[in-house]
Specification:
This protein has 443 residues and is α+β, with helices and mostly antiparallel strands. The protein has 15 helices and ten strands. It has three domains: 76 residues, no CATH class; 182 residues, no CATH class; 130 residues, no CATH class. Helices cover 56% and strands 12% of the residues. Helix 2 packs across helix 3, helix 11 runs parallel beside helix 14 and helix 13 packs antiparallel against helix 14.
Length: 443
């Protein structure tokens, strides 16, 4: 039952009738919330009966009991999503969701992993989903990784060469990834090879170029032994340094291991495809839910969106600086206009005398424009010098652009000159329109 809203109470009723409607409204809502458990049980029985009926029909077609149950769940889809949609129809979700979130958090806090707690179970899930994703038409490569790119440093530990156990190893960011990860992210191979399916039975590692140089220097690291995550691994490949953790800092030293060593609890699947993101999104959801319909997909985004989100703070700072810059430009234009207007008013008699003796309008306007141009040119020169000095300070905040860009400097210079010209236009026009007789009579 859906509770009526207070807006449905007639406005022309008397005070007594209105109060009765309000009391009835709250009583019905409270009764609806008390009946929630019975409705939950009815919904659960209805869904279970539907799945059992579908499984029985598939079993009559020759499937085993377990196969028919799994096929019925795959055909039905995400049971949790259907239940959530039904709850939204019941209403009062704005009050029930915080309670549900609190109950879920407490339950997960004291609940030990069951479905996907064991490494073998998570590994089977990862393998099956990867196989489904790679089978989507148009998919060029699909992989998984334990941490998304551009989400900061994580799982930091020292890496040591086995032949030099007493040497302090540099700190690295450790990642667990699957074959095709480097092909999906477009990272460049320097030496050796990428992770492959045969590494499932081997203890292999791929290092970043900076990490390989820190451990082996100018020597060839391929085939070398390094201790990672408490066990020795053989270096099979070296990839070029890239900003995997952040665009605001130097490339971090990285190491990638096959995900069979430690199937990640937080799994990020990555797909490279020629399809549009909207089309690919639906196919990816089906690929995951076809194996595990009960899985909730936390988020789906493109790498372009990931890049944009990683620079959200810098974009906000840029917006604030742009807003202040725009306000400063408007104030500068207002200041130029005010100074020139006052100058024209103070020189009105002089302008009248000059026009009376035959001065042309161009010669009359020239001093006004020169008076506006001199401080603008001086300010541009001072600003250019200050920007060159400040560029060294904000160099770390810039990515993919030059500290000194001639095209940007030219555009800004043109913008300021145009703003000064607009601010000086009205005073200059007023200067040219001065009537000599009126100017002489005013004194």
């Amino acid at each position: 039952m859906v509770c009526p809203t207070p807006a449905s109470i007639p406005a022309n009723h008397s005070l007594g009738k209105t109060s009765t409607h309000v009391i009835r409204f709250w009583v019905e809502c409270l009764l609806s919330m008390w009946r929630r458990k019975s409705r939950e049980r009815d919904l659960d029985r209805e869904l279970r009966a539907h799945l059992e009926l579908e499984a029985r029909e598939l079993q009559e077609q020759g499937l085993s009991l377990e196969e028919s149950q799994q096929a019925a769940r795959r055909a039905f889809g995400n049971v949790a999503l259907v239940e959530q949609e039904v709850r939204e129809v019941w209403g009062w979700t704005s009050l029930e969701r915080p309670v549900q979130d609190l109950r879920f958090a407490v339950r997960m806090l004291f609940k030990s992993p069951v479905n996907y707690g064991a490494d073998r179970t998570r590994l089977a899930f990862d393998d099956a989903v990867l196989q489904n994703l790679r089978a989507i038409p148009g998919v060029r490569s699909a992989a998984l990784v334990s941490a998304m790119p551009l989400e900061g440093e994580s799982w930091i530990e020292p890496a040591r060469r086995l032949d030099r156990p007493n040497q302090d190893g540099p700190l690295i960011n450790l990642r667990w990834a699957s074959p095709q990860y480097f092909e999906t992210t477009g990272q460049r191979l320097i030496a050796g090879r990428f992770l492959e399916e045969r590494d499932r039975n081997l203890d292999s590692a791929v290092l970043s170029e900076g990490e390989a140089k820190a451990l082996w220097g100018s020597q060839d690291p391929i085939g070398g032994q390094v201790r990672l995550h408490g066990k020795p691994h053989t270096v099979v490949g070296v990839v070029a340094d890239s900003r995997n953790t952040s665009l605001k800092s130097a490339p971090a030293r990285m190491a990638w291991l096959h995900y069979k060593d430690q199937p990640p609890y937080a799994t990020f699947f990555m797909v490279r495809s020629a399809q549009s993101p909207d089309t690919l999104l639906s196919s990816m959801r089906k690929a995951i839910w076809s194996y595990a319909p009960e899985i909730n997909i936390a988020r789906v985004k493109t790498l372009d969106s990931q890049l944009t989100d990683s620079l959200a703070t810098e974009r906000f700072q840029t917006f604030v600086l742009l807003a202040f810059g725009t306000a400063a430009l408007l104030l500068a234009m207002l200041g130029i206009y005010g100074v020139l207007s006052y100058s024209v008013a103070a020189r009105k008699r002089e302008i009248g005398v000059r026009m009376a003796v035959g001065a042309t309008r161009i010669r009359i306007c020239a001093p006004t424009l020169a008076e506006a141009g001199a401080p603008v040119v001086a300010g541009l020169a001072a600003g250019l010098i200050a920007s060159l000095l400040a560029g060294r300070v904000i160099r770390k905040l810039l990515y993919g652009i030059q500290v000194v860009d001639p095209s940007v400097i030219g555009m800004v210079t043109g913008l300021f000159l145009m703003a000064a010209a607009v601010a000086a236009f009205l005073p200059a026009l007023r200067t040219a329109s001065v009537d000599p007789m009126d100017a002489l009579r005013s004194e």
